[in-house]
Specification:
The protein is α/β, with parallel strands linked by helices and about 210 residues long. It contains 6 helices and 12 strands. It starts with a strand and ends with a helix. Bound molecules: zinc ion (ZN).
């Protein structure tokens, strides 16, 4: 079973946020809030990470999930949403440029988002930052007042950044996206893979931008 971490026990400003750690190729899954929970990314949704047992361990049942945000539509982040939709009826937020393969499966649950849109959560509003490069519809989610960034596969700890050689990837786009992210005030980075950065995340983002832009 994947490990579950109560991030609120590690950082005051993450009270109410939990991490279901992605194992193998599976993405991390972040759960924000409890009664009107918003889930950021969903893993591959197979036997490695069946999603529901972990959500239930967190006290989040089908009626408690209000939204799911996909940072992009790669299988390892997005396929778990179909397990969630077997029992719950959340809105599913995806950037319009990443909906090609999943729109028909999501039907009326799909909410197409754009740069500058806001996803409400119990804790803070999440600003949608369009950060193309890993895929053309990749997004990061920014909780401005708490200075928290959900960074998907765009930027990782220690100066790493997402691959841009996939089907809709672009080197120029990811460099530009990283540059935009350096302009945000970020203390906490919650990446799509690997462990969170709980303080000083802005420096990790600046390193990634320097590494990417050469
Ligand atoms: Zn990806």
């Amino acid at each position: 079973m994947p490990t579950i971490i109560d991030l609120g026990s590690e950082s005051q400003r993450l009270r109410g946020v939990s991490l279901i750690v992605g194992e193998g190729l599976c993405s991390n899954i972040y759960v924000i809030g409890r009664d009107r929970a918003v889930v950021v990314d969903t893993g591959v949704g197979n036997y490695v990470n069946p999603v529901w047992p972990q959500l239930e361990q967190l006290g989040v049942g089908p009626e408690d999930i209000e939204g799911v945000v996909l940072t992009h539509a790669h299988h390892d982040h997005a396929s778990g949403v179909f397990i969630i939709l077997e029992r719950a009826e959340p809105r599913v937020y995806v950037h319009r440029l990443d909906t090609r393969y999943i729109a028909s499966h999501l039907g009326r649950r799909l909410v197409r988002v754009e740069d500058g849109d806001t996803v409400p959560t119990e804790l803070w509003p999440l600003e949608v930052f369009w950060t193309p490069g890993h895929t053309e519809g990749s997004i990061c989610l920014y909780a401005r007042e708490a200075r928290i960034l959900f960074s998907g596969d765009t930027v990782f700890p220690d100066g790493y950044y997402g691959r841009y050689d996939g089907e809709s990837g672009s080197y120029e786009a990811i460099v530009n996206s990283l540059r935009r992210l350096t302009e945000l005030e970020v203390d906490v980075m919650l990446p799509g893979h690997g462990m969170p950065v709980l303080e000083g995340a802005g420096e990790h983002i600046r390193r990634a931008y320097r590494n990417a832009s050469g």
